[in-house]
Amino acid sequence: MSLRAVEKRSLPDKVFEQLTAEIVSGRYAPGAAIPSERELSDTLAVNRHVVREAVKRLEQVGLVKVVQGGRTTVLDFRQTAGLDLLALVAEHADANALEELPALLVGALEMRAGIGVDVARLCAPRAGAAVGGELLALSDTLAATRTGEELLALDQRFWQLMLDGADNLAYQLAFNSLIRAVHALRELSVPWLEQELERGEYRRPIAIAIAAGDAQSAAGATRAALTPPADHPLLAAAARGAGATR
Q: Which of 23, 155, 175, 192 is the most buried (most CB within 10 A)?
């Protein structure tokens, strides 16, 4: 995708989005210089103040380094960016480079699994039976739902209840980035979730353990629910994609 003039609304956001897509897709490689303010202003048909604000945002998320009086250099975001970039990478993933998408989703889901076990462990003793009851009701609703888009929303609600019960801000912020990434790759995440929910009894064992205040059982049930079988096709696709990029 080449740079193009942007609509006259939310201009810094639009410029930021275009430049982010160029960088995370690899079109601007680490160490390369992005076009100057004047060049970007001319290409995108915006004033230099808009470009400057967008580039400042790129620097804040760890995509570029701005050198006073010099060129703005692209950084290797894998070494410099934080979790907040995960959703941006997913949202701007090149749909033509399909081998990269499974690995990106699997990475997000593996992180969700690691966090999820500890969220369940914290939630069980802190949240109480009322939250456990809500989770059990949601489990029943998940089991009766057959539309993938609805499953995503309901499962997000399930995890939000657990996060509220765990009362851990760091996990909440990480979850926000993970859920954005998962929702950005719906064509892959919906089939994964459908299989995961069926295999894990629609989260019911997790809900039962939390309702009982049993931290160890809640963690174990979450680990079992979020661990995919070794022969899952998405894991194989992710491994092929990782091999292709080495």
A: 23
Nearest Cα to Cα of residue 84 among 197, 205, 216, 175: 175
SS3 163: helix
Distance CA 61, CA 20 (A): 10
Cα(49)–Cα(41) distance, rounded to whole angstroms?
9
Domains of the chain, by residue range, sit at 11-77, 86-245
Q: Mind listing the pLDDT tens digit for each residue in 13-30?
A: 889 988 988 888 788 999
**CATH architecture for the domain at 86-245:** Up-down Bundle (1.20)
Q: Is 65 helix (H, G, I), strand (E, B) or coil?
A: strand
- Write out pLDDT tens, residues 40-95: 999 999 999 999 999 999 999 999 999 877 789 999 988 998 888 888 777 776 55
Q: Which CATH number fits domain 11-77: 1.20.1600.10, 1.10.10.10, 3.30.230.70, 3.40.630.10?
A: 1.10.10.10
* Residue 2 binned pLDDT confidence (cut-offs 50, 70, 90): low
**What is the reported pTM?**
0.78
Helix axes 48-60, 11-24, angle to 10 degrees: 50
